[in-house]
Design a protein that fits this description.
The chain has 251 residues and is of the alpha+beta class. It contains six helices and 17 strands. Strand 9 and strand 10 form a beta hairpin. It is globular.
């Protein structure tokens, strides 16, 4: 076990005492969740058969190195140990590009993406959650044209879970922009998609695992469009892909 894996194990131990350390990560059988820990300091990818009846969370060494507080926050949330704020006690506010980007850079694991409509939830004077939606795009489905939008990003502030937050933000977006459907992706490195199902989304497809390259010294990650021409010293990996979900509002 390298230092990355030891650090995560120690962090989990600080909030949960019943777990088992296995060659591929950490198993919490009573919670039906397992953390699969991926090192990027070696080329060998995980070759072990993982259990299928668990919520598998895949944590990468570069994300732990570069966004440790965000990873800790997401682990804490999975254990139900983060601070709770109820969406009914928050106010929806419109955000500008800088406000959204600042929040995402501090609280979201993925790089910020382009969006047209930006909203947040404020509790008191604190911004506790944000959402970002794309511009309208005509999509043809089963011979019908839909006024479609994508939910590009949603996240809570580190250390906080806004109960009902995503539902409130989607409801506000629907009220303001009258979309005919909303599409989004559940990142299979972290999500099992159940939160989308609870909100009325249904699964419509799979985004295959994406290849990325990582520098084991600088801990910098590159996806295909931005990988340097000189790949010397970079190791190649793939994530778990995503599930594509759709909220059909025409029905």
């Amino acid at each position: 076990m390298n230092s990355f894996q030891s650090e995560i194990t120690n962090f989990i131990n600080s909030i949960e005492s019943k777990f088992e350390i296995l060659p591929w990560g950490v198993l919490l059988e009573q919670r039906s969740v397992a953390f699969v820990l991926h090192s990027i300091t070696k080329k060998d990818e995980l070759q072990i058969r993982l259990p299928q009846n668990l919520h598998l969370v895949h944590i990468w060494e570069d994300q732990w190195a570069n966004k440790k507080e965000i990873v800790k926050s997401r682990i804490t949330s999975l254990f139900g140990k983060s601070k709770t704020v109820f969406a009914r006690k928050t106010k929806v506010v419109k955000l500008n590009k800088i406000e959204l980007l600042d929040f995402l850079n501090q609280n979201h694991l993925n790089e910020p993406a382009n969006s047209k409509h930006k909203y947040g939830l404020v509790a008191g004077n604190e911004l506790v959650a944000v959402s970002a939606f794309s511009a309208s795009c005509p999509i043809h489905r089963n011979g019908v044209v839909y006024k479609s939008h994508q939910l590009v990003r949603f996240c809570n502030k580190n250390g906080i879970t806004v109960v009902g937050g995503l539902s409130k933000l989607i409801a506000h977006f629907i009220k303001m922009h009258n979309p005919e459907d909303i599409m989004s992706y559940a990142d299979l490195d972290w999500s099992n998609g159940k939160s989308y199902i609870r909100l009325g989304f249904h699964k419509i497809g799979i985004l295959q695992p994406q290849t990325f390259y990582a520098n084991p010294i600088s801990m910098q990650r590159y996806y295909k469009l931005h990988v340097p021409e000189e790949k010397s010293g970079l190791f190649e990996f793939t994530n778990q892909g995503s599930i594509k979900y759709l909220l059909d509002l025409k029905k």
